[in-house]
Each structure stands twice: as C-alpha cells, then as structure tokens.
Amino acid sequence: MRNDSRCLSNSCQKNSTCVAGHKDDPCLCADASVDSVEELCNKTFNPCSSNPCLQNATCLGSAGNLSFTCKCPAGYNGPTCERADRDCDTNPCEHGGTCQSGLAGPTCLCSAGYTGALCERDLDECISEPCRNGALCRDGVDEYSCYCVPGYQGKHCDLEVNECASDPCLNGATCLNQIGYYDCICPLGYTGTNCEVEIDECLSQPCLNGGTCHDSLGSFSCSCARGFLGDLCDTDIDECSSQPCLHGGHCTDGANGYSCDCTGTGFMGSHCETLTPLCWSQPCYNNATCEDHADNYTCHCWPGYAGSRCEEDIGECRSSPCLSGGLCVERSWAGHYGLEPGLPPAFRYDRAEGYICRCPPGFAEIYSVDCLSAKRSFSFGNFPVEKDGCNQDTSLHHFNDYVYRQDTIAKCDLDHKLQGKGNVCQVLTVMKTSTNVTQTLAKMVGSVRIFLEITLAIAHLQTKKGFFMVAGTVQKFCMAVLIINAKTMEYDIEIDLNVITPENVSSVSSLNVRTGCAKKDWCVHHPCQNRGRCTNLWLSYHCDCYRPYTGPDCATEYIPGRFGSEDSSGYAAFPVVSTQNENFIISMFVRTRKSSGLLLALRNSTYLYMRVYLEGGKLTMLAPNSMKLLGKHSMDDGNFYLVTLKIEPNKMELFQSSHYLGFISSPALTIQSKDILYIGGLPDNTETDRNGRYFKGCIQDVRVNNQPLEFFPITTPPNPPINRTLINVTQGCTGDNLCKSNPCHNGGVCYSIWDDFTCTCPPNTVGKACEEVKWCELGPCPHEAQCQLVHQGFECLANAVFSGRSSAIFYRSNGKISRDLTHIIFGFRTRDTDVILLYAEREPEFVIISIHNSKLLFQLQSGNSFYRLTLASSVPVSDGKWHQVTVSMVEPLSQSSRWHMDIDNNKDTATSTAAAGSLNFLREGTDIYVADKAFDSLDGLRGCMSTIEISGIYLSYFENGEIPIKKPQEEQFLKISANPARTGCLQVDFCSSDPCMNGGVCEDLYTSYRCVCPDGLTGTYCEVNIDECSSNPCIHGNCSDGIASYECSCEPGYSGENCEEDIDDCDGHQCMNGATCVDEIDGYSCLCAANFTGRFCRYRRLPYTVCGNEERNLTCFNYGNCTDLGSELTCMCLPGFVGERCEKDIDECSSDPCLNGGLCQNLLNKFHCLCDMNFAGDRCEIDLAADLISSVFTAVGSVTLALLAVLSLAVVVSAVTANKRATQGTYSPSRQEKEGSRVEMWDMVQPPPMERLI
C-alpha cells in the first residue's frame, strides 16, 4: 500500500527537516547551503534504511528518492503496515494455513511443514540433520530427502551398501566390498574395473625366433619354431635333454632333431624302443647264419664247422687221410690260402670243408682225395639215360632239355653188372635237392673216388670189365664215382663206348665232360634280404627267412593288422581249418603300449574255451575250470613280442618270446574245424570287456601250425583264401598321433613315437607330459618364506607375528574349492590367556578356535546338526611355547563325524562324543578371520602363528603381488584384508634359555627377544657394564666406573661430586705486606705491592739497573750491573743469580746436597742443611748416635763445636737479615715448606711481582 504523506516519522535523515507539501525536495538539510541541499539529500539518503515498514513488511525505495512504499503482509495495512485487518476475510494465511481472528489481529494455524505468522515459511526439516554418513539433506514440504554418498543407502543413509550384491565382477573375479565402491580381484588374464577385459599378452610380441604367440588367460604361450625352446623361444633346444632315447641309448643332438645310437643296448629303432632280435648281436662264429626263434636262436654252420655257435673247426686232418706220406692241409686254414698250390688265392667259408694232400714226389693228388698213381679224374654230363641195373621207384621229368628225377633213388643194386674183384657198391643214396648232395658209400674195397660234375639226373660209366650206373638229382652237383682196381684203370675210361683220356678232352670230343668239379657261389652277393640265411646250391640258392618275412629273397613282409586305431573297437575272426595233428600251435607277433586287451580267443559252438589277454601289461591265459596263468614279464612297452600258444590234448602251454610262462591243465580238448579263432576282440562289446577289453596295437604274422593267417594277403594264394572277418582292422602298424591333443604342458615340445609321445620339457619341469613343475626350484617365495609343493602348484609358508586387532587378517575362498574340508593344521605360541585364533561363520554354521582361560578351545557347528561341538585342551597353552595343533574329523569320508584334537604330537588329545559336519561351509562366501573375531570386545592375538592349512589348502600370508610367480593351483583361499602380514616369527622361545645376564629380564618379541637390563648394564644380553664415565662427568678429576654409578677423584684444588667446585685456596692465605691473594687451581698467588717480592710478598725487591735509551734498553734485576758495550746490552749478575736479566736465583738445593734426611735451605749463592737431631755436619753427614760412647772431651768438643756452629749460623743469619731487613719482611717456614726442597723461593723475579704457589 502506498503512503500519500511524505513527511512520516524519521523520513528525513542526517538532521534534515521534512517540509510537508514539497513535491520534489521534502527534506531540508541542516547547516547546508541552498545550493548543496538537493545534491546532498538526494544522493546520500535511502528512505528504507530506517526500516519504516512494520510487521516485517517489505520496504520499497531507492537512494536519492525520499519516498518509499511498504508492501504489507496479509492481515495488515496502513502506510507502514501498522494496522491489522479486522477479520480473516482476505485469508492472509499462506500455504493452506487456517486464519483465526483475535484481539491482536488474525492468527494462522499452519499446515504441516510450514511456520511463521502467516505460514509463509517452509519448515526446514533438515535442521535436525537426520541424514547420516555425510549425506545431503534436501528439505521438502513436511518431509525431507537424504541424498546418500556412494556406499550407503536407506532413508537416513545409515545402511552400508553391499556393492558386491549384484555380482559386478566378471570372469570369476572376486568382489571386495568397500565404502561406496567395490574392487574386483581379477583372475589371471583379465583386467578392467569389472575384470571384463581379457589381457592380450601377445600384443608385445614376446615370442622370439619366429615363435607363434598364443594368448591365454593370464598368460601366453609360444609355439616355437623347430629348434628353439623356452617360454619365449629364446633357447636353442637340446633335443637330448628329455632323454628321448630309451633303454640307455646314446642321444646325439642335431639341428632341429636328434639321433639315437642304440649300440650295446639290445634295442633298435629311432628311439631304441624295439627289442633287438638275439641274432643281431651276431652270436654265431665263422660266418654262420643265425636264425631267431621264440626263445633262442640257431646257428647254421658252414660245412667244416660245428658247435652250438659254430665255434668248432672240424679237423679233417686228424684221421691222417693223405696216403703215401702226403701232408694234409685243411681247407679251413685261412692262413694257407695264397701260399698253398692246391688252394685258391682267397679263403671262403663256403669252401672251408675238407682238405687237400700235398703229395710227395712220384705221387699225384686226385683232387684232394688220395695220393695214388692215377693222374686224373673226370666229370661228365649230358648223356643218354639207361635204366639197366637200377630199381627206380619214380618217374623221370624233363626240364630245359635236361632229364632229372624229382625224388631220391633209394637203392641201386649193381652187383650183377660188375665184373671184377670185390663187391664195390651195395647202397648209393642221393639226398633231396634242397640241401647239398650227401652220399653214403658202403664197402669201399680197393676203390678210388673220382669227383664228377653231374648235370643229368642219370648217367652211366662203362669200363672194359663191366659197367655201373650213377643216379643224380636236378641240381648240378659233384659226386664221387667208384673206380675199381684203379691201377688197371689208369687212363682206361670209356663213356658210351668212347675212351676218354686227359689228352683227348675237348669241347668236341669230351661230350661236355671236363675235369674237376666247378661250383658257382650264388650267395656271394647276399641275395637274401632282412637277414635271411642263404644256402648255396649248384644251379641257384635258397633263402631261409626270419619271421615276419617271406618270399624267395625274404623281401616281403607279412602285413600287420592295426587294431584300435584312433581308439576304435575292432577284431578279426578266422575259422579253424581241420587238423590231423593232436597238437595245435598258434603264434603271432604282438606290439602294444596298453596294459590290457584281448589277444586271441577260441570259441566252439557253445562257449569260449580258451583266452589269451593282457592284464597289467602281462600275458594271461584262461580256460574254463582251470586256474588263470599270469606271466611275469611286461610286454606293453611298444616292442614286438612273439606270443606262442601250444595246445595239447590235456594242457595248454604259453610262451613269450624266449620265455616259457607255464601251462594250465585242461580236460580232453578237441579243436574242431568249425571253431572260430578271434584276434583282438569279440563281436560282443560286453563280452570283450569281461575278457580284457579290445586290443589296441599291432598283430603280425599269425600262424596256425606254421600256416600263415593273413589279415591282408600279400600275394594271390593258389588255393581259395580263408574266409576271414575284419572289423576296424587296418593295414600297417602306424601309431596314433598323440601330439594332436597337445599333451605336453608348460611349453613342452611334443614328439610323436609309436602310439605314444615324448615331451622335451623346459627347465624346472618334469613328468611324461611336463605336467609337474618344480615350482620350488624357481625360487617363487620371498626369502623369509619356505616353498611348499601342493596339488598343481605351490605355497609360500611362513610364521606371522600378530600385535593386536590391527594386525588381524581376513580370507575368503576363491569359489573354486571342490575338495572336502575335514581338518585344520596350524602352530602358534602366545602368552594371551583369552584371544581368538580363527573365526568363521555362515549362519547357522560356524567354527571358532580360541584360547579361553589359557586353554585351547575348538568350537564347531556344522552340517544338519544344531549342536555345538566343543573340544578343549587339558593343559594351558599360554606359556609362550610353540604348540602344533591338528583338528580333524575321525571319519573324514562321512558327512557327519566325531572330531579329534591333537596338540604337540599326542601330548594332549581330545575327542568329541558328539558328531558334527565338515568345514565345507568355508568353500564359498564365508569370511575367515585369523587372529581376531569381528565385532567382539577382545583384543586381537599378540603372538605368533604358522600358515594355517585347511585340508591341504593354505591361508597364505603373502598376496599375489608379493610373489613373482603366480600360484597355478585352482583351489585357493584369498587374503582380502589390506593390511600386510608381518612374517619372521620364531617358533622357539629364546627366553626359555635365560639369555639375559646380570639380572636382566627377558622380553619375548616373537620375532626376536629383548633383555631389559638393570641400571648400569646394557648389551644384547645385559653383558656390558655401562661406562658412566664415558660422558666425562668429573669436570676436574679422574672418573672411576662402578655399577650404575661412578666416583670422581678430584684434582688438587677441586671438590664436589663431579669435582665441579674450585677450592678457595685464599682462605687463610699468607700474603703479606698488603699483597692481594689471587685464588688459583690447587693454590694461590700473592699479588705483591710495589717494592715487595717473594711468594708471599715478604721481601723487598732488590734494586735493579737499567741501561740503554728509549728505543733500546735493558733492565738487570737483583743487583745486576747493566753495561752497554757498544752495540750489545748485557747484565753482569751477582753470584747466586743467573739469566739474561739476572732474574733467576740459582737453586743450590737442586742437587739435594743434604744427607740423612737433612732439609736444604737455599740461600744467596749457597745452601744450608737443617739436620735431624741425630745428624750433624754441613751436609748432615755425621751420625751423632754412633758417638754417644765417646769421651767426654769429644762430647765437650762436639758441644763446643755445635755451639760455635750455631753461633756462626746465628751470625750469618743476622748478617743476612741485616742486609735484607730494609726491603724484606720476616718469614717463618711452614711444615709444608720444610718438607720440600726449598724454604725460600726466589726462583723467579720478574715484573709484575706475582708468583704462583703450587
């Protein structure tokens, strides 16, 4: 409301006067000129400055404008809002307030949340500060709102927010709830606020030398190029470091590979993995051929050698076969070849049989047989066949225009054909063509053998006196022909009525007859492969092959069958061919690396009646109604083994290579032609599993009664093939590539070997697959910790020191613990009588290990039981000694069990009567408090604890950041408290040995000890006495150290505990003649007045003379005469004085002239001895006591002399005194001066006249 009057009370300020009715300038300023009135009033005055408006109304005005307006609140009016409204018609109450009329005017009843006369003010509910924990309060209408800082929630922000409740941490990270935020402890390989980012460790290209980096969680791995090794491919691989050569083979490292030298190991192959056949050791001597068998070997000797190893040279010359004094030379004597005329230049084993005769003159050698007068022998062939005289049982066959017999002629009766003396031939037998020709000659009476080379099966030789026939075989061979009465037959041999002599032997006339026997060596070029044994024949050779080889040259190998390739299930089945033999032999080569598998089985129409399988890598044979036969030798090492089964009517025998394993008895067993032989498995999977499971490996060269059963025939057989069944059996013996699955751990390099693999492991890793890391050899733990290997990793163990609640540590599982937690092991030592050692709770389950009234207490509530299990020790444990504790379930495999507590190796034990569950509630989501309990009134542990083990998982005192190598084990308890553990606690209480000496008190600090020493002692053991004198407490004296004290021996002139007080030596001083006493250390000096001198200023100063001038002068004391001799001033001293200025009195007593204790008195230029009463003389040299018995005269004389001496002395003293009396006082020496060397001290006289008394 605007006020019309402009002259209100106090409207004009500064003593101005309001003029009513004046429009422009109502205020007239006092003491102001007319010109300045308007300016002064208008520019300096604000009408609202005096608060003219009442009822808290608002005044509207401005400086320089004298008028104002009051904006009245509801219920009031008037120029200054001085009048109240009469009623509530206008409803002045705001914000819904209720108006009530009264004598004093209207009043307002305000709505909730408002206040003020007219309810114009909002009530500030935030005044009471209802919001907690730093929250911001926002006022509202009859309410308030709390805006919480991060980490709190609730109406009043009094509830802490669990930021981990939403599981914000990803990838298995552990969430730590903080005030207002959370922290994620990321597993290895992840980073980011929520561990959402996988770390690509390959970004830095860590792999060297062309290695390929493979990122993984928390780490990376390098696939190194061949020839390199190491985490970063920085090491050149030593392929021999993993010892890939088996059975002691010598490994030679090469470029990107290695080679194995199997010499002397008995094995062969690229890794020396295959057992070398016995013949490979060349056991046979003299170039014999070795043949391997199941259990041994056979040496096939060349003719001329014998023995099991062909080591014996047959001595053909032992029977002295050479006649007429001929010298016998054996063909096996290699040293004679090239020297003996009858021997070839070079020795050959195939010609080592037999001998030659070196005949004497006049005798001839008939081809190394006999020395007779006959000069020649002949061979012949290609003649017509004549059957007369021979009983031939077989027919003749033609081959390449030659006639030969297939079988042997058993008997040839030539008796009726012979016309001569003697019965020459009764039996002539020629063996089969597969071996060398052997002849049996009987009754060789008067006959001579001639070697003939036969190329026909049948030939005949006719003589003048008769004829006989000789039969041969298909091979070209040399045989002996009997010549009867050799002397009459000399040169008289007819062949088909043609006389043959050496002179007429030619290619035309001899009819293919030539002298001697020539045989080609077909084996010289070793045509038999794979160690086959070559037998030389006349027209060819024959190879005896080792298994599993076959063919004319042993070049073909029976194709092995591969069973279980890539872990498939398969088998082979063969029908049994009828056999006429009672014995039935099955043999095969077997190669495997599996310890189990069915090798072979025989089934008839009813059941399996024989099985051979592997059990634990060993051959096993089983038949119905018989004991199982188990072999003794393993054969699952990847080598080939020959397995032989011999079935006889009443027993079955089993062989493994050269080892006879034994037999089992069986009832009469007949193998029928319809029986089935199964190899490697059976058609039914269940039945196969009962009999050793399917075989995995290779089987080769299966033979039944020496007849091969081929999985894959190598040639088309002449007869129809056996109907065989092959299920998942493949050709060859190629092993599975086990490196495909990357079996080598920790960066190991995989090398595939047959059905297996070998790993080249990095350093500090071992195991077939490098799976075992020698973690502790890497030094992963801090120096104060001990490394302990655990499953899949390691832990760093140490003892920790706890010093109250502030040092308590909290743990929580990483959420990956799967094992059952059934025991707790820890050690401790403390002197606390009531303290928590370990506490964990997840309602309703909990575990508490504490010390109560000095006894160890174990409390557990776990599982389905709500009963609290309690175990307590019987003896106190708060003795400061180390105690080892194990608390475990009696039956750890049960869900509920009694618990047992063992302290110090059964020194104190306790077992509960009730049962409780395990500690599995600790595996997830439960905080474990060590050395304290949350929210209790007790202080934390003060003492020492070992690393706590809970069923093999340790509560480590070291965080991952403190360990250079990340712990790889999956199951862990993580330390979640931020405070570091203080390690280094000692298990031994050093105070138990009373190390403190001299009454010191030992204080156990757990990491060490401390001796509290009594006063005056120090050192580690209180062994050192503190030197209280080290601080030099004695100011003027010598310090003597004591125990916790010291004593000062003061220097003369000082006193006091520390010799700090200077003794006032002027007290009772003897300074005379007005001298001033000057206190000094241990004495005083007298400051003499003028003309006085001496120690006590008792003597007048002797005159002195001065000569020279102002620039150059000299003072001579003590009557010294000063003379100026040109350029030099000198003092001429009186006797008794010396010095440049005659300032020194000569001390005649310095030489101690007085004897017998006499006191020397220094006089001017002389001395005087004051003798003891028993001595006399100038120098007290006369002993008066020795002269007491002398004569009276002598006594009188002595007395007289003494009196004279005294008189003389008195005269002298009087004279001296008379001379000095004018300038010196009288002096009476004290006892102290008498005992010295001088009485008068005129030693030094110099200005100023002051001397020191010492």
From TrEMBL:
Q: Which residues span the membrane?
A: 1188-1213
Repeat: is it a keyword of this entry?
yes
**Which InterPro entries does the UniProt record give?**
ConA-like_dom_sf (IPR013320), EGF (IPR000742), EGF-like_Ca-bd_dom (IPR001881), EGF-like_CS (IPR013032), EGF-type_Asp/Asn_hydroxyl_site (IPR000152), EGF_Ca-bd_CS (IPR018097), Growth_fac_rcpt_cys_sf (IPR009030), Laminin_G (IPR001791)
Q: Which SMART domains match?
A: EGF, EGF_CA, LamG
Family the UniProt entry places it in: Belongs to the Crumbs protein family.
Tell me where in this chain the Laminin G domain is found. 561-733, 799-985
Name which cysteines form disulfide bonds: C53-C70, C72-C81, C110-C119, C148-C157, C186-C195, C224-C233, C301-C310, C545-C554, C761-C770, C1013-C1022, C1029-C1039, C1050-C1059, C1088-C1097, C1133-C1142, C1171-C1180
The way this protein sits in the membrane is described as: Single-pass type I membrane protein
EGF-like domain spans which residues? 44-82, 84-120, 122-158, 160-196, 198-234, 236-273, 275-311, 519-555, 735-771, 987-1023, 1025-1060, 1062-1098, 1103-1143, 1145-1181
| Cellular compartments annotated | Apical cell membrane; Cell projection
Q: Which GO terms describe its biological process?
A: establishment or maintenance of cell polarity
* Entry's Gene Ontology cellular component terms: apical plasma membrane; cell projection; cell-cell junction; protein-containing complex
Under Pfam families, the record lists:
EGF (PF00008), hEGF (PF12661), Laminin_G_2 (PF02210)
Supply the name of the protein. Answer: Protein crumbs homolog 1
What keywords are assigned to this protein?
Cell membrane, Cell projection, Disulfide bond, EGF-like domain, Glycoprotein, Membrane, Repeat, Signal, Transmembrane, Transmembrane helix
What CDD domains does UniProt report for this protein, alphabetically?
EGF_CA, LamG
Provide the GO MF annotations for this entry.
Answer: calcium ion binding
